[in-house]
Amino acid sequence: MPPQQPAPPPSAPSQPSAMSTMVSSMSQWELFLVGGALVLVIGDLLFGILLREKYAGDLIWVAAAVALIAFFANRRTPGSVPMYANLMLVAGAVVALLGVREFIVSLLFALRNLDSVGSVYLIALVVWTVGLALMAWGTWLAWRSRAA
Smaller CB count within 10 Å for the chain: N or C? Predict the structure, then answer.
């Protein structure tokens, strides 16, 4: 009988990725706010610039971009963004309040011109609505957590 080879030494556990570490350290309201902001900004880049469809208004886009910049700056150097939670609340509230009006106007336009509205416009409207809803829910959670 040939001699048995010893079992290889156990491998070291893999280190979690930077992304999973960042996501696991986020609060629930941050997840929704940042997720919604990412959907709005990436959706605007895709639909608004590349496909030339009407997308979010400029102020909504700026508020989502400010939320992303504040989030990543605060993650890189904690405490570097003064009044971080308040800034995120204001950015989320701007998106939520202006977004509801923009959503109603876009939905009415789509319903009135259903035969001439393209499918890309409707997909953009759905993506935009998801981003708006995520940021609005994150704002509500942040506000509720501050009040508690």
Answer: N
Length of the chain: 148
Cα–Cα distance measured from residue 70 to residue 89, given in angstroms and rounded to the nearest whole number: 11
Q: Do 33 and 135 contact (CB within 8 A), yes or no?
A: yes
The span from the CA of 133 to the CA of 130, in Å, is 5
If you compute the radius of gyration of the chain from its CA atoms, what whole number of angstroms results?
A: 21
How far, in Å, CA of 18 to CA of 88, rounded?
22
Reported pTM: 0.79
Position 70 scores a pLDDT of 92
Residue 16 maps to a domain: no
Q: For residue 78, give the H/E element and its range.
A: none
Amino acid letter for position 55? Y
